[in-house]
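User: Let's play a game. I give you a shape written as tokens, and you guess the letters that built it. Ready? Here's round one.
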């Protein structure tokens, strides 16, 4: 049975500490799911093909394995990414804008 907890999490980033690598297109490895959790503020989550979602503390973003994507802070924010080796059981999906 898969663990409900992530195997790894990033540090908490804010609008000034968010790494450039996350601001430009990148992807998770094959077999790795990411959950973008916004702790404060808003973040634009952009996936390949141009679909955009505004993430908030109430709307998380799910990154599928090997899915090209990037994030853009929208003002003051704090966020963290959790990584799973399986599809997360509990996920509060984001709504496309």
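Assistant: Ready! My guess for every position:
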């Amino acid at each position: 049975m898969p663990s409900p907890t992530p195997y790894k999490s990033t540090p908490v980033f804010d609008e000034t500490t968010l790494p450039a690598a996350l601001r430009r297109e990148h992807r998770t490895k094959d077999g790795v799911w990411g959950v973008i959790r916004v702790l404060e503020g808003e973040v634009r989550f952009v996936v390949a093909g141009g679909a955009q979602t505004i993430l908030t503390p109430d709307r998380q973003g799910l990154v599928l394995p090997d899915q090209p994507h990037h994030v853009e802070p929208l003002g003051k924010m704090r966020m963290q990414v959790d990584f799973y080796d399986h599809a997360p059981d509990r996920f509060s999906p984001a709504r496309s804008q």
